[in-house]
Design a protein that fits this description.
187 residues, mainly alpha, 0% strand, globular, 2 domains, 7 helices
């Protein structure tokens, strides 16, 4: 049942972004239409994982992922929210939470049930936080690489932009890390 809900939610996002792309192409706005098409591809990723692999994505991760996509692609890029200086930081905060939650989900899947109860809640806290921060670092490496290789301007604010993004990623990861600490400690 969860798989069906996940597929339906992703399909709704894919259809929404496809319609948006068609409307933008019809208005002659190719650059924004390409962003919408990228949204279609990003929305198809969880569906492909669900249908073609044995890896199960949890429903909260998929919902969080779709919220992030909507916020970054549709609101941020297509509706111009990124012109507000705080939107980029907010999206990094959300992505920090998303990656941290994915790290927690991964931790639960990689360890045997009997091993989970033996781990210190502090270890889980540090693992989830480190996983989230590492994800943020990888994204900043991607932005830097694209700027250097293709002169894209993803790091418009230079070092200040990078550090603000990493701090927002870390705070988002910290929030979920505290949640995981409490969850592991009380279970």
């Amino acid at each position: 049942m969860r798989k069906k809900i996940a597929i339906i939610l992703c399909a709704i996002y894919v259809v929404f972004m496809a319609i948006t792309a068609v409307l933008l192409f019809s208005k002659g706005n190719q650059s924004d239409a390409l962003i919408a098409l990228a949204g279609v591809v990003c929305g198809l990723v969880p569906i492909a994982i669900i249908l073609f692999t044995k890896f199960e994505l949890s429903l909260p991760i998929i919902i969080f992922y779709l919220i992030f996509l909507f916020g970054s692609q549709y609101l941020g890029s297509l509706q111009g929210f990124y012109r507000n200086g705080w939107w980029d930081s907010f999206m990094h905060f959300i992505s920090g939470m998303l990656i941290a939650y994915f790290g927690y989900d991964l931790y639960k899947r990689l360890l045997r049930k009997d091993s989970i109860t033996k781990l210190s809640p502090w270890f889980v806290f540090l693992f989830v936080l480190s996983f989230s921060v590492f994800g943020g670092v990888l994204w900043e490496v991607y932005e830097f690489s694209m700027d250097q290789l293709f002169d894209m301007g993803l790091q418009g604010g230079g070092n200040t932009d990078t550090m603000t993004d990493l701090i927002a990623d870390t705070i988002g990861g910290f929030v979920i890390s505290i949640w995981t600490y409490v969850k592991v400690k009380t279970s």
